[in-house]
Write a structure and sequence with these properties.
This protein is an alpha+beta fold. The chain contains 25 helices and 29 strands. Helix content is 47%, strand content 25%.
């Protein structure tokens, strides 16, 4: 991909009359990453002084072809290209072209070794991509182009100045020719982009005198008009110390009568100090110097670049000497050329001692062949670098593991010059790897034992599994696992394997006293985690000595089986050669003992849990039978209420109504009131029974939940209460549409009916009920809820009573003022609890109430 692009800074308007013409630069971008090229273009677009033309190539081959066509001012080269690495391309480019521009290398990762190779091969600079800033990139490009330009200008300038001097000498002899030449020279001087000035030399004192020529560059830099400068001396225009420096250089020229090139410092009009490369030459008349002409170029950026380069070289030296790893330069034949202090510390030699030997002398014989094979490949060009882990032989003859990374540096003729070697001491890592390997093996063994323990349930099976696995890991004469029963003061040998297994049979119970000596030692020497003992050192009359008299057992290790603060038993292992047991093996046995104790405790808890489970199942069965009996009694009670209590109430209500109809004329006003009270009380009692039955059914019935259209439910409730609505002339407004809710049609109808009935009933006397019914969506953190609300203009409820009203038989007003059973809102509460929803009320006395229920949308 080839791309020519001219970029302008977006901050400058090229059409504006007051905008200065930007200088042109051509930059070749050699990078296979479009993103990186875009970054470089963006960085350089911010340059207010220069306009850039970009020539882009994605491969090295393409870049080599383009170079002759575009002749860029500078090249930005990516270290890794699809077909070349940066060093290969740089060498090929230098071979192919004789006249080449400056080149800066850009890479994705910093490597001082690679940077050194590039610099040695002619690269101007080296940057890590993620550390580049726009200012750094512009500064680096400006510095390198300026240096290149300065070199060319100096060559050209010297030629021009010599030619001009010859012309001026001829002009002194030919006045007319001099006038013509001065006119031409004035035009050149006025427009040349360097500072040009000329001053008289006093014929008597031979000292520099007043200025008689200053060009436009001089006037612009020092912000002084030509008329103000002409006729002034340096001391009148510049600070004394600056004028003194100028005068000293002028006197050298006057004394030698030869041109001189020197560096001079001067302050610009803005107060900044700049460094100029000044070329001064004399003008003669009849063999005497009459004037001094100076031409000066601002080299401040170049001086700053030199300073930065010097600092970079200093940092490199410091990095080499103070690096945390060994660094060395090694000749192709293996001789150490340069070593840092860290390498000397690693191998134990002084610098002088190392420089007198080769790397072959201190390489372990088993690693030398591999190392030399890598050296052969890198010298043959098969590889560019290599890394390996190997051993050095220190001066004290100890072996030390190191990680070696080697790359080759070639000379200007592309011949091997020396190797750069980075040596890292990895002895600690190697020791850690060996330790980790042992730990991994131990953990693997423990894991296998854990799996086997977990597969077993009974203590004896667990013990047999552990002993079998221990015998596979270690060579022991005998292994036994014994558990203690402290309450019964007995011990049980769960499992034994080894020489003469019939000495102590598995499952054998013996007195706890036989182990008392071991128990005492374990309690007193618990810091070690185990104890050792010899059978030959026990009294011959001891029970253990008698029991094992005919065996060849002597030394054993006893490991406690502890669970929290309880000693559950011991793991006992007999060894013929106990001194061969390693620390790692003892640590592993301690861990096995801990796992075994946990497994035995779990087995005990498992058995205890099984017993608890059996007891719990019996209690649950008994409780279930009791609940079933209570439910049967409740059903019988409900049946009694439904049939036996309703019949007398119907009779009372019927006879009272008949009394009013048949004998009403014979009853006085008091008799009529008694009859009416009988009918009302019977009706109220019947309603109370119906509400109690409904409340009771809510506690027992099985509820099927599904999506219910609340609009249908509300309309059906209104139909059921139509007579009451007409009697009270209640105004009911539905805020449609009404959403759907997960619930049960019958239960939701009963809820809405109760809420609507209360809204109609509980209003002040002679007040028309105003009722609004609607739904809203409530966003919960887990799911979406639907809230149905019934809002009225009733008497309202104090905040302190708003929870009471949902309890059974809770009434805030007398039956005479607002008749009812006091169960309606309790039914609402119980219904929403069974539906898994919520309910509530928002109310203030005298301002009405807003009752609501809330359930899942889906």
């Amino acid at each position: 991909m080839t791309r020519y692009m001219t970029e302008r800074s977006p901050n400058l308007d090229p059409t504006a009359n007051n905008s200065p013409t930007k200088k042109l630069r051509t930059v070749m971008l050699i990078d296979d990453s479009e993103v990186d090229r875009a970054v470089y273009r963006r960085y350089l677009q911010t340059d207010a002084e220069y306009q850039y033309t970009f020539v882009e190539a994605e491969t090295g081959e393409e870049a080599l072809e383009l170079y002759a066509q575009c002749q860029p001012d500078i090249i930005l080269l990516d270290y890794l290209l699809p077909d070349f690495d940066g060093l290969e391309w740089l060498v090929q480019w230098q071979r192919q072209y004789k006249n080449f521009c400056s080149l800066i290398v850009l890479t994705g990762q910093g490597d001082e070794n690679i940077a050194v190779q590039f610099i040695k091969n002619g690269a101007a600079d080296y940057f890590v991509k993620d550390r580049i800033t726009p200012e750094k990139l512009k500064l680096a490009i400006g510095k390198e182009i300026a240096l290149k330009k300065l070199q060319l200008e100096k060559q050209d300038l010297f030629a021009k100045l010599i030619s001009r001097n010859e012309k001026l000498e001829r002009s002194n002899r030919l006045y007319q020719a001099e006038i013509a030449q001065r006119d031409k020279l004035s035009k050149i001087i006025a427009n040349v982009p360097v500072v040009i000035y000329a001053k008289y030399v006093d014929a008597t004192s031979k000292q520099p005198g007043k200025l008689w020529l200053v060009n436009q560059e001089f006037q612009q830099i020092f912000k002084i008009a030509e008329a103000e400068a002409i006729g002034k001396t340096d001391r009148e225009l510049f600070p004394p110390h600056i004028a003194d420096d100028f005068a000293a250089n002028d006197r050298l020229l006057i004394a030698s009568k030869q041109p001189i090139t020197t560096e001079e410092e001067v302050y610009h009009a803005d107060g900044t100090l700049h460094t100029y490369l000044s070329f001064k030459f004399p003008l003669f008349s009849e063999g005497e110097i009459t004037s001094i002409v100076g031409m000066a170029t601002d080299i401040t950026p170049e001086k700053q670049a030199q300073t930065e380069l010097l600092q970079s070289e200093t940092r490199f030296r410091q990095t080499f000497e103070q690096a945390a790893v060994g660094i060395a330069h090694v000749a192709p034949d293996g001789k150490w050329l340069r070593v840092n202090q860290k390498l000397c510390q690693i191998v134990g030699y002084t610098k002088e001692e190392l420089l007198s030997i080769t790397f072959q002398d201190i390489t372990h014989p088993e690693d030398l062949h591999t190392d030399l094979e890598y050296v052969r490949q890198i010298l043959a060009g098969a590889i560019s670098t290599y890394s390996m882990e190997k051993r050095y032989i220190r001066k004290d003859e100890a072996y030390i593991w190191i990680n070696l990374t080697v790359s080759l540096v070639s000379d200007s003729n592309d011949e091997p010059d020396y190797f750069i070697a980075v040596i890292e001491d990895i002895s600690d890592r190697k020791a850690l790897e060996a330790s980790l390997q042992k730990s991994w093996q131990r953990l693997s063994n423990l894991h296998q034992i854990d799996k086997a323990i977990l597969a077993a349930v009974k203590p004896q099976a667990i013990a047999e599994t552990v002993i079998k696995d221990i015998q596979n890991l270690l060579t022991c004469q005998r292994a036994s696992i014994v558990t203690f029963d402290w309450e019964r003061e007995t011990s049980t040998i769960l499992a034994t394997q080894g020489v003469k297994d019939d000495v102590l049979n598995n499952g054998l119970q013996v007195s706890l006293d036989i182990w008392q000596g071991i128990i005492d030692r374990l309690e007193n020497e618990d810091k070690q985690g185990y104890i050792t003992a010899h059978l030959s050192q026990l009294p011959k009359s001891s029970e253990m000595a008698i029991a094992l008299e005919n065996t060849k057992l002597d030394c054993f290790f006893a490991f406690p089986l502890n669970s929290q603060d309880n000693l559950l038993g011991i793991l006992k292992l007999w060894f013929e050669e106990p001194e061969t047991i390693t620390t790692e093996e003892l640590t592993m046995l301690e861990e096995i003992s801990s796992q075994l104790a946990i497994a035995l405790e779990q087995a005990r808890l498992y058995k205890q849990t099984q017993n608890y489970a059996l007891e719990l199942e019996a209690k649950v069965a008994q409780r279930t039978a009791q609940i079933e009996e209570i439910n049967q009694e409740l059903k019988a009670f409900t049946y009694t209420i439904s049939h036996d209590l309703k019949a007398p109430l119907r009779a009372i209500q019927g006879f009272a109504s008949a009394l009013q109809e048949d004998y009403g004329d014979n009853l006085d006003d008091l008799g009529q009131e008694y009859a009416a009270r009988l009918i009302s009380s019977a009706w109220q009692m019947t309603q109370l029974i119906e509400d109690l039955l409904a409340y009771s059914r809510l506690c027992r019935i099985e509820i099927q939940l599904k999506s219910v259209d609340l609009e249908v439910i509300v309309h059906r409730a209104i139909e059921q209460l139509q007579l009451e609505i007409e009697r009270t002339q209640a105004n009911i407004i539905l805020v449609e549409p009404l959403s759907s809710m997960i619930g049960n049609k019958t239960i939701l109808l009963q809820i809405v009916s109760n809420l609507l009935s209360n809204a109609i009933k509980f209003v002040p006397p002679k007040v028309q009920p105003q009722i609004r019914i609607g739904t809203e969506i409530i966003m919960d953190s887990a799911e979406t809820k639907i809230r149905l609300w019934v809002e009225d203009n009733g008497i309202g409820i104090d905040r302190e009573h708003q929870k009471r009203i949902f309890q059974v038989f809770e009434r805030l007003h007398g039956n005479e003022a607002y008749p009812g059973t006091g169960i309606g809102l309790a039914i609402v509460k119980k219904s929403m609890e069974r539906l898994g929803g919520r309910f509530g009320v928002e109310s203030n006395p005298g301002k009405g109430s807003r009752f609501w229920i809330e359930g899942r949308q889906r």
